[in-house]
Amino acid sequence: AGLFEADSQACCTFLNERCEHILGSSLEEVADTPWTELLPASEQARVRNSWRLAVESATRFAEEFRYTRPDGKQLWMRAEAGPLRNENGSISGFIGTMVDVTEFHERATRNEFRANHDGLTSLLNRDRFERHLRAALSGAREVNDRVTLLFIDLDQFKQINDTHGHQAGDIVLKAIAARVRRVVRSEDMVARYGGDEFAVLLNGIGDEATLCGIINKITQAVALPINLGSCHVRIGSSIGMAVYPDHGDDPASLLTHADKAMYSAKRKRCDKALSSQT
């Protein structure tokens, strides 16, 4: 840990060698500036207020914050300090430690991402998507808005797995995930719902023509050839739609309606394919 001492204004009066290494600056370079002002603008007010409260109440200071060194390296830091008193018993400053906790934060971020996203496609996973759906419905009720749910199922995906192997199937799933993500808006939610099924949450799109346009774009994007390295494959999709509040006012009702609509679309495609063969 880096050791430091600072006065009540947060100006450093001592830094050990480790603390200078963490900060990327010597004591001489930072002594005249409160160390809280060395932080990114987004962190300064919060940490400064915490330091001020510690001084006023003569209690321990402890905060975690982002920090950018002079060489541009970005860190997560944790600072803890206890009060120092002068001969009159009043607070003269603080003595404490600074620790680089970047690795811990990066690990926590990776763990959080893995908990909420599909490992293959990096899309939202089913659980996280349903939480977003519940939140979207709650918001839509308050402002009398509409929410649209799309279910996408890939046609003949098993045939690709059986013919070209599961690695090829993974390539197809990743390609489809990227295409659907590009078609919709950045604020829309896309998830791998399970297997070869995807789900899309569209907020504030209630116009039927607009919805049909989005569905057509997804259908066309999915149908483009996919390069497997040794060959190209094509795959179709069946899409079911459910709109709040038209088809339900809770997640379960909308999910059920979209699922049934998707299987209905799949049956129609199969029937159409059979009739064309005969």
List keywords for this structure.
alpha+beta; 47% helix; 278 residues; four-stranded antiparallel β-sheet
Quick rundown:
With 278 residues, the protein is α+β, with helices and mostly antiparallel strands. Helices cover 47% and strands 27% of the residues. The chain is built from nine helices and eleven strands.
Q: What does the model show?
A:
With 278 residues, the chain is α+β, with helices and mostly antiparallel strands. The strands form three sheets. Strands 2-1-5-4-3 form a five-stranded antiparallel beta sheet, with helices on both faces. The protein has a four-stranded antiparallel beta sheet with strand order 7-8-6-11, with helices on both faces. A hairpin with a 2-residue loop joins strand 7 (189-194) and strand 8. The chain contains nine helices and eleven strands. It has helices at residues 17-23, 27-30, 41-57, 102-116, 126-143, 157-164, 166-183, 208-223, 251-277; strands at residues 2-7, 12-15, 61-68, 74-85, 91-100, 147-155, 189-194, 197-203, 226-227, 232-233, 236-244.
